[in-house]
TrEMBL record:
<dbReference type="InterPro" id="IPR000092">
    <property type="entry name" value="Polyprenyl_synt"/>
</dbReference>
<keyword id="KW-0808">Transferase</keyword>
<dbReference type="GO" id="GO:0004659">
    <property type="term" value="F:prenyltransferase activity"/>
</dbReference>
<protein>
    <recommendedName>
        <fullName>Probable farnesyl diphosphate synthase</fullName>
    </recommendedName>
</protein>
<dbReference type="InterPro" id="IPR053378">
    <property type="entry name" value="Prenyl_diphosphate_synthase"/>
</dbReference>
<dbReference type="GO" id="GO:0005737">
    <property type="term" value="C:cytoplasm"/>
</dbReference>
<keyword id="KW-0414">Isoprene biosynthesis</keyword>
<dbReference type="GO" id="GO:0046872">
    <property type="term" value="F:metal ion binding"/>
</dbReference>
<dbReference type="InterPro" id="IPR033749">
    <property type="entry name" value="Polyprenyl_synt_CS"/>
</dbReference>
<comment type="similarity">
    <text>Belongs to the FPP/GGPP synthase family.</text>
</comment>
<dbReference type="InterPro" id="IPR008949">
    <property type="entry name" value="Isoprenoid_synthase_dom_sf"/>
</dbReference>
<keyword id="KW-0479">Metal-binding</keyword>
<keyword id="KW-0460">Magnesium</keyword>
<dbReference type="Pfam" id="PF00348">
    <property type="entry name" value="polyprenyl_synt"/>
</dbReference>
<dbReference type="GO" id="GO:0016114">
    <property type="term" value="P:terpenoid biosynthetic process"/>
</dbReference>
Length: 299
């Protein structure tokens, strides 16, 4: 199976599960699901996307022999959390975006209050999914996943990175500050996605560290590619506004070092990520292709 086919197949499986999780039928211990809020959540999640983060959970777990059904559920949980962050980032008080994945952002299609509640609900649903008995893992592994995701999403991870990103609009950080910001805002969830595969498989700590390091490399590559696309692509291709960082005076590594440096650094990151997977031989081919895809993507 080619990388592209595998990416599409895993995305389809993830979306099918997300559709079930976001159905109108109340789950155990729920009284009801308000229709407007549910529709906003569905719009924020079921509106396309590559589903890269769930893909990484599924494929890193597969590499180490982890349970495929559990990996699918953890990937869906991570996608709920990722999409919550997008819904909130798009709000007028944050990035003030009207377009996401080629469609109106949640606060534009519904309203700001509903968008906030939709994001809140997706965030909490992520931990609901992981902690649920339907995620068929030993209790200690589910607890480890909950803790790791909480750290990746919170003040020392994604949310903290977003705070640094907002602060960067008034005072551009130096290169070290940009690296820290991006490792938190973008990199934290990608690192978790890769580390989660090792947790699901019950692997030893060295495996977990190795896959976390792989996630760090491709997380950096993802943001660097995003910075290049923000300069060179257009809204029709990206499905969202471009040129925002330059317009707001935000510092990026590409702005500080230049596009040629950015492309060279991307090649280095792909090589570094691939080297980390050497012990797995041919079994790691799909993750090596993933690193290339992250660096070379067009949207």
């Amino acid at each position: 199976m080619t990388f592209e086919t595998r990416l599409r197949d895993n995305a389809a499986r993830t979306e099918a599960l997300l559709g079930d999780l976001l159905s109108s039928n109340p789950r155990t211990d729920e009284i009801t699901r308000p229709e407007n809020l549910l529709n906003a959540m569905r719009h924020g999640v079921l509106n396309g996307g590559k589903r890269l983060r769930p893909f990484l959970v599924i494929e890193t777990a597969a590499l180490l022999g982890g349970d495929a059904t559990a990996a699918l559920h953890v990937g869906a949980a991570l996608e709920c959390l990722h999409c919550y962050s997008l819904v909130h980032d798009d709000l007028p008080a944050m990035d003030n975006d009207d377009l996401r994945r080629g469609q109106p952002t949640v606060h534009r299609k519904f309203d700001e209050a509903t968008a906030i509640l939709a994001g809140d609900s997706l965030l909490t649903l992520a931990f609901d999914i992981i902690a649920s008995p339907e995620t068929t893992l030993p209790d200690d592994r589910r607890a480890t996943l909950v803790l790791a995701l909480a750290k990746a999403a919170g003040i020392g991870g994604m949310a903290g990175g977003q705070a640094l990103d907002l602060a960067a609009e008034s005072q551009a950080p130096d290169e070290g500050g940009v690296i820290t910001l991006q490792a938190m805002k973008t990199g934290a969830l990608i690192r978790f996605a890769c580390e989660a595969g090792a947790i699901i498989a019950g692997s030893i700590s060295t495996e977990r560290t190795r896959l976390r390091s792989y996630g760090e490399k491709i997380g950096l590559a993802f943001q660097l590619a995003d910075d290049l696309l923000d300069l060179t692509s257009d809204a029709a291709t990206m499905g969202k506004a471009t040129g925002k960082d330059a317009a707001r005076g935000k510092g990026t590594l590409v702005a500080l070092r230049g596009s040629d440096w950015g492309r060279s650094r991307l090649r280095e990151l792909v090589s570094e990520a691939s080297d980390l997977l050497t012990p797995y031989g041919k079994r790691a081919d799909i993750l090596i292709e993933t690193a290339r895809f992250v660096a070379e993507r067009k949207n």
